[in-house]
Amino acid sequence: MADDTTNQGIPEPEGAVDIIETDFEIGQDNIEGQVGPFGFDIHNPVFMISGLSIVAFVFYALVFREQATEAFGALRPWLTSTFDWFFLWSANIFVLFCLVLIVSPWGGVRIGGTEAQPDYSYAGWFAMLFAAGMGIGLMFFGVLEPVYYFGTPWGDEPLGVVRPLAEDGTLIEENIEPARRMALAATIYHWGLHPWAIYAIVALALALFTYNKGLPLTIRSAFYPLLGERVWGWWGHVIDTLAVFATLFGLATSLGFGAQQANAGLEHVYGIPNNITVQVILITAITAVALGSVLRGLDGGVKVLSEVNMIVAALLLLFVFLAAGPGGILGDFVGGLGGYAAEIFALSNPHGREDTGYMQGWTSFYWAWWISWSPFVGMFIARVSRGRTVREFVVCVLLIPSLVCVLWMATFGGAAIEQVITDPAGSAVKAQVIDTYNPPISLFAMLEGLPLAAITSTIAIILVVVFFVTSSDSGSLVIDTITAGGKIDAPLPQRVFWCTFEGAVAIVLLLGGGLGALQAMVISTGLPFTVVLLLMCWAILKGLMAEKR
Amino acid sequence: MFNRIMAPVDLAHTETLGKALMVTADMARQYGAGVVYVGVTAATPGKVAHNPAEFAEKLDAFAKSQALTLGIAAEAHAVVSHDPTTDVDDALLKAVGETGADLVVMASHVPGLTEYIWPSNGGKIASHSSASVFVVRD
Known about the structure:
The complex is a heterodimer of chains A (about 550) and B (about 140). With about 550 residues, chain A is an all-alpha fold. In chain A, about 70% of the residues lie in helices and about 0% in strands.
């Protein structure tokens, strides 16, 4: 053990860990060199194959646009309806697995060794958890989803709850309360335990095999118990490449759609024209800020932006909470949470359901979506979670974020539903979500019904944009690490490359019209990754058994 | 003139440090100064070590072998950084204070075009540290 008196820079001795002895040396397959003034240190062949296949798919989506739109456009709904039972059961398994870890003796295992100290405070850690993978979704769906379930005329009511709106747009009094409760419960189901369990599984697997087993920080490391030394060969290359592929296209397509949404918001609030030029400017601006963030590094850039964003989001939440009436919102919080607890078994059971519109169109879609994002979000969470025990990790990545999401949905969704109930004919939310389905405007329509709409709408637009930045910068770090074979100290130009590449792919797809096709393709990767996640559960168990508690 | 020399080393690329290590030892003998070898590591497994503790051990071993072969008084000081790619300068600057060094001897490549965008480690440390800095070109 190192001498403490001469190594003050090390926070603490790390204590007992169960290092996996492997012949693989991190960076052994890397190519280091110099192109002009730029140094590089990339994994061969993951970097080249993922880079080239991304270019090839962009090319395919642009040149054979109709064919690609048709193929992927049909693939995604086919997968989410054919394998609905598989997605729903897998997600249930992930939740149960996490809950068992909390109460099991393995909960005492510490990530990074028995003596490791946490790298980040709770505040910084939570901020990064939300900013990477969930923040943007909360902004987009917080009003949309609850109001949609409350008043959907399209026949996809959760668990067949009776619609409270009559054909002429008036309310049917006795249906209001059950529909309101179900709308919140069904939304919370998609943003509560299940998505966070998906992220927690990937994050825990990677953190364990990186910080305790000494394997490189890359997706393939979680497969060491299964594949052994083969994980350093083609098996591992395929896993890592698929992860890079899903992450980059996931980020690029949501950046492209996000620019359209932000533009719709800007048009609605300020009358700024809604066209491709504005959207390209938005993507460029988001990419530029993300670039600044990755250049400043994890602590100086990514963490700072995440924290700023969390504070602003919390203030917006507090404002809506107070402005919409704390009594009503608390009622929705309790009602939504109660409904969630009461209906979670019915909602998460895929068999004998009649509400397939909800189960396949929403739940199954969401699960595939979260799972396709999980390599990125999970790996980022893993990187910042050293020093926590498994129990602490699961409580903080599963339970607390779920509760925050319940509060968010109860506040934004509850405030919006209240507006629909109070004045169905004059409600802007009802007009934008139910009368005409206009998702990007839903949040702004709800804010219009509260005081100070001009200010809060501006804050909301800024939040949307910055949440895109915080996804983009953490995503670039993740892709850079995977394509450098798990090295987090690869030369700076590499992360600049991935960050820029992501913005460029988004712009090309926006101009050429391939966003929808490629987003459908990314969500389709949720199916193979579900198998990957199930295997990770087994790997986590194997890994934990060998650790000192 | 100098009491304590700080020598930042990259354990993954010690072969490129030969000249700087010799200068460090010469200066140490000239002024009867002690040498602190400083290494910056990430908490994640890397080429050199599986975890920070193992890195510290390896840096210690490196310092001891330098002391033995070059006949100088040497010790090691390991620093953990969350993001070494961007934070290595700050980590080294902090180490100057922690080690109480009054002279830093470090290797540096010949400046190129990118130096206008990302200044070299040596350059940043020279402009922000109270210690004297000797940048040894490779």
